[in-house]
Amino acid sequence: MLTKRIIPCLDVKDDRVVKGVKFLNLRDAGDPVELGARYSEVGADELVFLDITATIRSRKTIVELVEKVAENVFIPFTVGGGIQTVEQIDELLRSGAEKVSVNTAAVENPNLLRQAAQRFGNQCVVLAIDARRSKEKEDKWQVCVKAGSEPTDIDVVEWAVKAEKLGAGEILLTSMDADGTKEGYDNKLNKAVSDAVNIPVIASGGAGKLEHLYDAIVDGGADAVLMASITHYENYTIKQMKEYLKGRGVPVNL
Amino acid sequence: MIVVIDYNVGNVRSVCNAFCYIGCDVKLSCEPADIENAAGLVLPGVAAFGYAVGALGPLSELIKKVALSGKPLLGICVGYQMLFEKSSEYGRHNGLGLVGGNVVPIQPGQTVPHMGWNLVKLPEDMDLFAGLGYEKHFYFAHSFYAEVTDSLAKIAYTDYGFDLPASVQKANIYGTQFHPEKSGQAGLKVLKNFAEICERENRRC
């Protein structure tokens, strides 16, 4: 049986992880390669590296980072942030990334998803959606682009369905309302999207307690849960998360 | 030396990295001389089937010839799928035809792609899994799978609502639908086992 995945997310800026981390025994707490290798050792199922600078200058840095991570980390990892072309995706995959996530560029040019899927297979095309709850309509969410700074009038569920048809192989779904609150994932959002598509959905934004992970999987229908603060600060170890989920009957790789 | 076949598709570096990490002599190459002189070949692949077959081009005949001569060959993911006869991913494409079977879509009802860590039952008589016990989790990421029809192939299965072939072995031809290079310690052990198989075969020659 396929297990549910625990995915730590590392936000990278100028070759450093920028959300603080407090691992013991780490010489350099902000080094993404060292942190990635450590997560791999302690049983993370996958990693996501997001280049939050995403400028032309940082592009070269992120390729070098992917190369270094791939030499030291033998679990899958996704790279995202400012990716716009099939050539950039190709470069990152060839450098050792398992998957590449696209966000704004796919909204502006949905054909990017199709082109990438036809060339690399849809399993390495991740569509990242930053979702904001609609103020007007109940249980509707709008897609935001440019690192969440620009709302669009695109409906999140409709966009997810369209993206699947175009070739997205996975959806990384971040609730901008829940992000950083530690009050739990937006499981109405997760459920609305996971019910509407047949591809895996990664729930993101809001993890604060162990039961939040369980709720995202069981109530939200998520295939994987992504988190940053609660694992970086070692509120909970990966092992604790997996033991908790296993204890409540969720299949995990433990 | 193990040669990882470089044919301009994703993920070739990860496979080389993993062999390097476990201390194996490995070379990424598309040179016919390297392929012929290798102790063993690895055909990796993150790509759509049709793109991968096209990218392999004339190398496919050489790989077939070398594999049929008895040299160990390990196909991974799309490289594994290419061991079979045909695929229906984005059109109809011919594979290498080294193992009987066709590559077909995972049927609706399951989440597709089959993405993540799944438990593989490891038959005792499959050399690739020596020392790994009777089951282990491995990382999968694929939307198509091989329906194996070859009576000479040994098969390891995983459960994805049906028995999904996760790995085959037919004489010197090995393949894994999962990514050993991304499957942590268990995956590295599979690659180590393959390297040992290559060493053993070479001593015999």
Q: What's the quick description here?
A:
The complex is a heterodimer of chains A (254) and B (205). Chain A is an alpha/beta fold and 254 residues long. Helix content of chain A is 38%, strand content 23%.
What's the arrangement of secondary structure elements?
The complex is a heterodimer of chains A (254) and B (205).
Chain A: E1 5-13, E2 16-17, H1 32-41, E3 47-51, H2 56-72, E4 77-80, H3 86-95, E5 99-102, H4 104-108, H5 111-120, E6 125-133, E7 141-145, E8 150-155, H6 156-166, E9 170-175, H7 187-196, E10 201-204, H8 210-218, E11 224-227, H9 229-232, H10 238-247
Parallel strand pairs in A: 1-3, 1-11, 3-4, 4-5, 5-6, 6-9, 9-10, 10-11
Antiparallel strand pairs in A: 1-2, 6-7, 7-8
Chain B: E1 2-5, H1 12-21, E2 26-29, H2 32-37, E3 40-43, H3 49-56, H4 59-68, E4 73-76, H5 78-81, E5 86-87, E6 93-94, E7 101-105, E8 114-121, E9 135-142, E10 144-148, E11 154-159, E12 163-170, E13 173-176, H6 184-204
Parallel strand pairs in B: 1-2, 1-3, 3-4, 4-13, 5-7
Antiparallel strand pairs in B: 5-6, 7-10, 8-9, 11-12, 12-13
Description:
The complex is a heterodimer of chains A (254) and B (205). With 254 residues, chain A is α/β, with parallel strands linked by helices. Chain A has one domain: Aldolase class I (TIM Barrel, Alpha-Beta Barrel). Helix content of chain A is 38%, strand content 23%. Chain A has helices at residues 32-41, 56-72, 86-95, 104-108, 111-120, 156-166, 187-196, 210-218, 229-232, 238-247, and strands at 5-13, 16-17, 47-51, 77-80, 99-102, 125-133, 141-145, 150-155, 170-175, 201-204, 224-227. An eight-stranded parallel barrel of chain A has the order 1-3-4-5-6-9-10-11, surrounded by eight helices. In chain A, strand 7 and strand 8 form a beta hairpin. The longest helix of chain A has 17 residues, at 56-72. Chain A is globular, with a radius of gyration of 17 Å. Chain B has 205 residues and is an alpha/beta fold. Chain B has a single domain, classed as Class I glutamine amidotransferase (GATase) domain (Rossmann fold). Helices cover 29% and strands 31% of the residues of chain B. Chain B has helices spanning 12-21, 32-37, 49-56, 59-68, 78-81, 184-204; strands spanning 2-5, 26-29, 40-43, 73-76, 86-87, 93-94, 101-105, 114-121, 135-142, 144-148, 154-159, 163-170, 173-176. Chain B has a seven-stranded mixed sheet. In chain B, strands 6-5-7-10 form a four-stranded mixed sheet, covered by helices on one side. Chain B is globular. The A-B interface holds A 1-5, 40, 45-46, 67, 70-71, 74-76, 90, 93-96, 98-99, 117-124, 169-170, 198-200, 223-224, 253 and B 9-14, 17-18, 20-21, 46-49, 51, 78, 89-90, 108, 111-119, 137, 139-143, 159-160, 179, 181-184, 187-188.
